[in-house]
Amino acid sequence: MKYTLWEMPTRKRLASGMIERVGIGNSTIRHKSAESVVLKRDCSNHEAAIGLALDLLTDTEYGVVNDVSEIDAVGHRVVHGGEKFNHSVRITEGVIRGVEECSALAPLHNPPNLMGIRVAMSQMKSIPHIAIFDTAFLATIPIHAYIYALPFEWYENHGIRRYGFHGTSHLYVSRRASGLLHRKPSELKLITLHIGNGVSITAVKDGVAIDHSMGFTPLEGAVMGTRCGDVDPAIPLYMMEKKGITPEQMNHILNKKSGVLGITGKYVDRRDIIRAASEGDDRCLLAIDIESYRLKKYIGAYVAAMGGLDALVFTAGVGENSPLYREKACKDLESLGIKLDPKKNNAAVKRSEADIGVEDPRYPVKILVIPTNEELVFVEDVYAILLGTYDLHTNFEYIFQREDFAPNPA
């Protein structure tokens, strides 16, 4: 369980923490406020974990508030809002029922999200609780982009369609990119690449998402750490029949044993793959080439879908920290106006914003590295809902008022 306490409207992070091994013994809490501390505390369930977090936030030594009553609201991340929720909402019993109904679409995520909501609401009954949905920013994708070429009644009766994920990350970096470029979101065509263990790409035109690489589940799209991304759907059926693999086993293989792990046979962390590739490991070299090639194909497809491009934005663990993956994803895209500056790319500082494109009018597309900040999206949504000023697509005007517009001069 992760938590952060913010002070608004100053956007000051007062404290944060993470509790590991909840319910399985030997629980550890890492809490950071003015100083960091690591404590061993037994948390038999998430109710105990939330209680422990509240105790630390009010602790005389490590705390930052005198009493829980000083907390005005709680924001909860919810992975899947389906078609029911296309923006953040104040949580009611009706919202809880709606999230429950979406649980079939995210069985590994929505039930734990709901458990956390119920426990927090039972411990902090008198304040508003807000749900922020990963899928909300992607709800603007048009029907021709989200409907699959399958029997249409599957969509009507079972909700089979493209939903997309990592929405809060794509929202933040697309809005931050518009600030760095001194242009309104409504004036821009952007491609945002969230490259971590999970990988997703979004086409953002005129401030709204118009296409996204992930689909009905986070399995579709780019090559990922352990997920296969796009494959011929006949392959799993063929292998299930060939090797007697059950649906449950195949689901595990596609989600946990594929991607770069499947190609290399041993690595998920791209740093390990890059190191092994530099030492001559052919399968690691192949994994880098396959993943980068898939990224490049999505970039080209989304330039075509939007009819042009103003900026390419890299974010998340690999996107922010791997010059090699950025270089290979941008290679040979000069015909699209995209050309990376190798020196700027290699000099980009970890966790800092950077402009890594060449300064050449022949290649007008900006290439930006922007560290994502999903927690800031959560807290901005909560604060705006409390004030009654919330709107998904105008809630980030403050970005244009920040003084650090200029990308880090790598």
Please describe the topology of this protein.
Elements: E1 2-7, E2 12-20, E3 28-32, E4 36-40, H1 46-57, E5 74-78, E6 89-90, H2 93-101, H3 110-123, E7 129-133, H4 143-146, H5 152-158, H6 167-180, E8 189-195, E9 199-205, E10 208-212, H7 234-243, H8 247-256, H9 259-264, H10 270-278, H11 282-306, E11 311-315, H12 316-321, H13 323-330, H14 342-347, E12 354-355, E13 366-369, H15 374-387
Parallel strand pairs: 5-7, 8-11, 11-13
Antiparallel strand pairs: 1-2, 2-3, 3-4, 6-7, 8-9, 9-10, 12-13
Helix pairs in contact: 1-3, 6-15, 10-11, 11-13
Short description:
With 410 residues, the protein is an alpha+beta fold. The chain is built from 15 helices and 13 strands.
Description:
The chain is 38% helix and 16% strand. The chain has 410 residues and is of the alpha+beta class. Among the domains are: 2-70, no CATH class; 180-374, ATPase, nucleotide binding domain (Nucleotidyltransferase, domain 5, 2-Layer Sandwich), CATH 3.30.420.40. The strands form three sheets. Strands 10-9-8-11-13-12 form a six-stranded mixed sheet, sandwiched between helices. Strands 1-2-3-4 form a four-stranded antiparallel sheet, with helices on one face. It starts with a strand and ends in a 23-residue tail after the last helix.
Q: Total number of helical segments?
A: 15
N-C termini distance: 36 Å
Instruction: Determine the CATH superfamily of the domain at 180-374.
Output: ATPase, nucleotide binding domain
Extended strand count:
13
Oligomer: single chain
What Rg, in angstroms, do the CA atoms define? 22 Å
Bin the helical content.
25-40%
Q: State the secondary-structure class.
A: alpha+beta
Largest sheet: 6 strands, mixed
* CATH fold name of the domain at 180-374: Nucleotidyltransferase, domain 5
Bulk shape: globular
CATH A-level architecture of the domain at 180-374: 2-Layer Sandwich
What spatial order of strands do you see in the largest sheet? Answer: 10-9-8-11-13-12
Beta fraction of the residues? 15-25%
Order of helices and strands: EEEEHEEHHEHHHEEEHHHHHEHHHEEH
Query: Class of the domain at 180-374, according to the CATH hierarchy?
Result: Alpha Beta
Overall mean pLDDT score?
Answer: 91
Query: What ranges have pLDDT less than 50 throughout 5 or more consecutive residues?
Result: 400-410
